[in-house]
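Why predict the complex rather than its parts? Because the way molecules touch one another can change local conformation, and only a joint prediction can capture that. The input here totals 221 residues.
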Amino acid sequence: MKPSGIEWIGDVPEEWQLMKLKFTAKMMRGKFSHRPRNDARLYGGEYPFIQTGDVTKTEKYISTYSQTLNEWGYSVSKEFPCGTVVITISANIGDIAILNFNGCFPDSVVGFFSNSNINEYLFYLLKSMKNVFISESIEGTQLNLNVERLSSIKVALPEPMEQLAILDFIKTETATIDTLITKYQKQIELMQEYRTALISQAVTGKIDVRGWQPKTKEVVK
DNA sequence: TGGCTTCTGCCGACTATGCC
DNA sequence: GGCATAGTCGGCAGAAGCCA
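Output of the joint prediction:
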């Protein structure tokens, strides 16, 4: 292990590379240069237009969108390719998602794109850095993270083969956790139903509580 | 090369929404 | 209804492009 020199990371394996975010993949900022931005003449075409809200609502892959652009709208915006990892940099800082199709973005979103498997690894990496992004943001009426600050944030990257191994680990472990969450949620629902039924039966006289005594608690030494 | 125009990105402000 | 937060928009400053 070696010290990364980055406070929030601490020590990292010797072979991991430390680099600024801008060197991990091709970095692009969205745009929407037309004013006013809500000009109806630019919308309603065939090009998906994704706002920060669409990113925020997404767990991992962006597969739906609320607006589309026509040819004119497309010409004033910026299209990110399928597979781009996107991050919101205005208002709601540091929400991450992966684009599941080619789509256009406004300037409140930045994209990272690489042809290698690094896109998915980057997704998990950036996802874990939300607090870092927030702390790097400029605080005005609301938080804003500009491209210069974002691109200068340092990260530690393993070799591509190790990235794949880490991805496998994350997928396997999170699948196990998701299964457990589903199982316990079901149990919680059943307990809530039981509680409701119990209350109902008690207050309607279906249960005879005469002679009932509260359980005595064991004294913990 | 300097001045004008257009474009781009940053950031503050406004609006919508949700929660208490 | 009031407040907090989220989401989007508009204005402005600086950069880039264009032309004389």
